[in-house]
Amino acid sequence: MNKSKTAMGLMTLTLMASLFAGCSSNNNANNEPAATTGNAGTSTEATTAPTDAAKDIKGDITVITQRTDIVDTVFKDYAAKFNEKYPDVKVNFEALATYEDQIKIRMSTKDYGDVLLLPTSVAIKDLPDFFEPLGKISDLEQQYTGLEERTVDGISYGIPITVNFSGVIYNKQVFKDAGITEVPRTIDQFMAALQSIKDKTKAVPLYTNYAAGWTLTQWEADLATVAGDRDYVNIGQVASDDNFVKGQPHYDLYKVLFDAAQKGLIEEDPTTTDWESSKADLANGKIGTMMLGSWAIGQIKGLATNPDDIGFMPFPTNASKILVPLSDDYNLGVSIHSKNKEAARAWVDWFINESGYPTTEGGGMSPVKGAELPEILKQFDGTDVTFDTLAPAKAGEEGWVDAIDKEAEIGLWQPDFKKVIIEAAIGNRKESYDDIMRDLNDKWKAARAKITAQ
Amino acid sequence: MFKLSDMSYKNQRILIILLFSLVPIVLLFTFAYLPVIKMFQYSFTNWNGLSKTMEYVGFDNYKTIFTKPEYFAVFKVSLYYFFATFVQMGLALYFATILSFNVRMKNLFKGILFFPTLLNGVAIGFIFLFFFKPDGTLDTILQMIGLESLQQKWLLNPKLINISLAGASLWRYMGMNFIIFLGAISSIGKDIYEASDIDGANRWHQFRHIILPSIRRILQLNLILAVSGAIGVFEIPYVMTGGSNGSGTFVIQTVDLAFKYSKLGLASAMAVVLLGIVLIVTVLQRVLIKEEA
Q1: Do B161 and A268 count as a contact with CB atoms less than 8 A apart?
Q2: Which of A10, A282, A363, B207 has CB 3.0 to 4.6 Å from A287, enough for a Cys bridge?
C-alpha cells in the first residue's frame, strides 16, 4: 500500500514537473530572440571606438519580407553591404510566403519583427498602433515620392519599397504578326487590336488569369488612366455617388474586360488558368496582352527567348491626356515594439536609398526624388504620356475609399466582382454588364452615405 | 513538509484525478471553448480583426445576416454536397460489404479506398484542378475509352461546376465512411453468417438481414457527420475555385467577409449562425431517427 502511494506520488510529481518543464522551455524559446537582442547590444560595446553616428547604432534586427525567392541570396548580400556602413547591426531575415495573411495574424502579438512591410489590409487609421512614425510628411516629401498612401495626420509610417506603374504588358511580336503597327491608344483601337490578334494569330488576345484571382485586381490600378485625372481615385471617387454609372471611369474600365470576354478575346477556359505558366506564355508569344504592373515586366522578360519582345503600354483611354499612375508597392516601416528602433530605421533608409532594390529586384521606380526612369519607359520620353502619382485624399478624408469599399463589400482590390463580370460575359450568369454595375453603384452609394456621415 | 502519503487515500485519489484531468481540460478550454466564447463576443462588435478598438453594436450583425437574402442564398450550393453525401455513403457501404467477405487482394483494395482520406485537402484541390482542366486527366480518360462526346469544361459550365466539386469531395471523404462501416461490419460474429449460410441465405439476404440491422447506429452517425459536413463545405471549393463561378459556400463567404473585407464581427456572427444551424440539424436528426427506431 505504502509503496503504491509513493509510486503514485512520484507519478504526480513527474506529471507536474513535465507540465512546468513544458511551459518553461516554451517560454525560453519565445524569449530567446528578445534576450539575445539585448545582449548583443551590450556585448559589442567594447569594440573599437565609434567614429561617426553610423557606428553608434547597434543591435539585432529582424527584417520580414515577402520575397521568399531571394531572401537567402540577394538579401544576404544586402546585409553584408549594410554591415560595411553599420558594422554593429546584425540583420536577420524572415520571409513569409503568404505575406499579407501571415503578418496580419502575427501583428495581433508584439512579435512581428523590427522592419516589415505595412500590410495593405490594415486600416490606415490603425497604423499608429503598430508602426513607428518615420517623420512628418512635409519633411520626408523633400526626399521621397509616394508617401501619401500610408500617412496619418501628417505623419508617415512607411516608405514605398518601389514605385510601380500599371498598364498593359504585351508581346510585340504578336502585335506585329497581327498587323498592328501602332500601339493602340483609345479603348476602341485596343479592342480592334485584340480582335485582329484573334483573327490573325494563334495567340490569346487578352489573358485574364481568372483562376489566380489576385491578378484581376491589377485592373483597378488602371482607373486613373481611364479617368485621365490624378485626382480621380482619392478625391473624385469619394465625392461621387455615381461611381459605377455609365460614362464614369469604373464603367469604362471594366467594360473593356466585359467586352473582351464576351467577344471571346480571352482564354478558352478562364476557370483553369495558371499564373506561373501565363508569364511564360506571354513571354513566348502564346498570349498577346495582360493587365499587370511594372513589377511583372522583369519576371516575364526573364522567361522570354527574346526579352525585347516584351513591351509596356498605358491602359487604353478616351481621356485627352494619357496618365500612367505611379503607385506604391508595399511600404517599409518599423514595428512599434522594436527594441532597436535606430538600427531598424537605419535599415529602412539604407534599403530604400542604397540597396538598389527599388529598381533591380522591385522592378519599378525608386521612390527617391529625382531618380531616373527605368529603361522600358524611355520610349515615352517626349510623348503625351505622363507619369504621375495619384493625388492624396483631402484632409480628413484619408482612407475613405478603403472604408467605403469594405463597408460596401465591393472589393475594388479583390477579384470578386471582376470574376462576376467575366462569368456574365461568357454567359454563365444572367446579369448584364449594366446590372452588375448598377448593383455595385447601389452598394457604393449606401456605404458612402454611411462613411461620410461619420 | 507536505507529503502526499499524509493525505487520506480518498483525498489522494481526488488530487490525482484533478491533476491528471487538468492537462486535457486546459487544452480543451484554450483551443476549443475560449475561441468559441471569443467568437460570440466578436459577433456583437464591428471589429475589423486588427484594430485595438472595437465597438459593441448589439445585434446589428445578426440583423444584417437575416435581412439580406444573399447571405443565405449560398446554402443552395450545399444541396449538391448533401446529395453527394448519399452517393458517398452508398458507395462506402457497398465497398465495405464486399471487402468484409473473402475477396482476393482485400487489403490492397482497402488501402486504395482509404488512401484519399490521408491526403491533405489542399493537395486534393490541386489534383482535381488538373483533373478537370480542358485536356486534363478526365478528358484524356474519356478520350481513351471513346467517349469524346462527353468531354466538358467541367469547371466553366455553371451547371456542372458544383457537381464536379461535389464529386471531388465524394472521392476525398468516402474512405473515412468506408473504414467506419468496415469496422462496424467486422464486429458482427462469424457464427451468424455460418448459421445463415446453413439456412440457405445468399449474399443479398445476409446484407439485408444481418449487416444492415447490425450497423444501423453507425449508419446514423455517419449520416449526421455527412450532413453537417455538407453544410460546412469549405476546402475543396476554396482551393479549386475560390468560390467563384457560383461555387461559393457559406463558410467561404464567412472567410471572405473576415479577411477580404475586414468584417470580423459580421463573420463571427455568421459562424455563430452556422453553428446554430448545425446544432439544429443534428438535434432534428437524432429526434427523427429515435422515433423511427
Answers
A1: no
A2: A282
Spatial separation of the C-alpha atoms in residues B68 and B65, rounded to whole Å: 6
| E strand intervals along A13-153 | 59-65, 89-95, 115-118, 135-136, 151-152
Question: How far is residue A122 from each of residues A55, A77, A344, B2, measured CA to CA in Å?
Answer: 35, 31, 21, 54
- CA B279 to CA A212: how far, in whole Å? 35
Select from B9, B20, B241 the Cβ nearest to the Cβ of A271.
Answer: B241
CB-count exposure of residue B77 (10 Å: 0-12, 13-18, 19+): buried
| Residue-wise DSSP of A185-196 | -SHHHHHHHHHH
Tell me the three cell numbers of residue B53.
478598438
What residues does A151 pair with on adjacent strands?
A156
Query: Measuring CA to CA, which residue among B81, B125, B65, B78 is closest to residue B257?
Result: B65
Cα separation, B203 vs B222, in Å, equals: 23
Q: Is A394 left (phi over 0), alpha (psi -120 to 50) or beta?
A: beta
**DSSP state at residue A123:** -
Closest CA to B163 of B173, B155, B171: B155
> Does the beta-carbon distance from A104 to B12 stay under 8 Å?
no
What's the CA gap between A40 and A50, in Å, rounded? 16
pLDDT at A5 over 70: no
Of A2, A122, A271, the CB nearest to B5: A2
Q: In what order do the strands lie in the sheet with A135-136?
A: A135-136, A155-156, A151-152
Using CA atoms, how far apart are residues B211 and B100, in angstroms rounded to an integer? 10
The answer to whether the Cβ–Cβ distance between B260 and A108 falls below 8 Å is no
Q: At CB < 8 A and 24+ separation, what contacts does B242-245 make?
A: B242/A211, B242/A213, B242/A415, B244/A210, B244/A213, B244/A271, B244/A415, B244/A416, B244/A419, B244/A423, B245/A271, B245/A419, B245/A423, B245/A428, B245/B155, B245/B156, B245/B158, B245/B161
User: A51 pLDDT band (50/70/90 cuts)?
Assistant: very low
Residue A214 in grid coordinates: 489576385
φ, ψ at A180 (rounded to 5°): -90, 115
Question: What would the grid cell of residue A116 be?
Answer: 516589415
All three cell numbers of A375, joined, read 529603361
How is residue B80 written as a grid cell? 449538391
How close is the nearest chain A Cα to the Cα of B51, in Å? Answer: 6
**Below-50 pLDDT ranges, chain B:** none
Q: Say how far apart CA A24 and CA A14 lie, in whole Å.
A: 15
Q: Which of A78, A152, A7 is nearest to A358 (CA)?
A: A78
Give tens-digit pLDDT for B177-205: 999 999 999 998 888 888 998 998 888 89
CA dist B106 and A453 (Å) reads 70
> What element of type H or E holds B185?
helix B161-186
Mutate to test the interface with A, among B6, B156, B239, B263 (most CBs of A within 10 A): B156
CA–CA gap between residue A375 and residue A308 (Å, rounded): 11
In angstroms, the first-to-last Cα distance of chain B is: 60
pLDDT tens digits along B132-161: 888 888 989 999 998 888 888 888 888 889
**What is the ipTM, given to two decimal places?**
0.73
Side-chain-side CA neighbours of A261 within 13 Å: the count stands at 24
pTM of the model: 0.77
> In chain B, what residues touch A217 (CB-CB under 8 Å)?
none
CA torsion sign for A255, A257, A259, A261 is negative
A151 close to A234: Cβ distance less than 8 angstroms: no
Closest CA relative to residue A272, chosen from B157, B164, B129: B129
Other Cβ atoms less than 10 A from the Cβ of B38: the count is 11
Q: Maximum distance among all alpha carbons in chain A?
A: 99
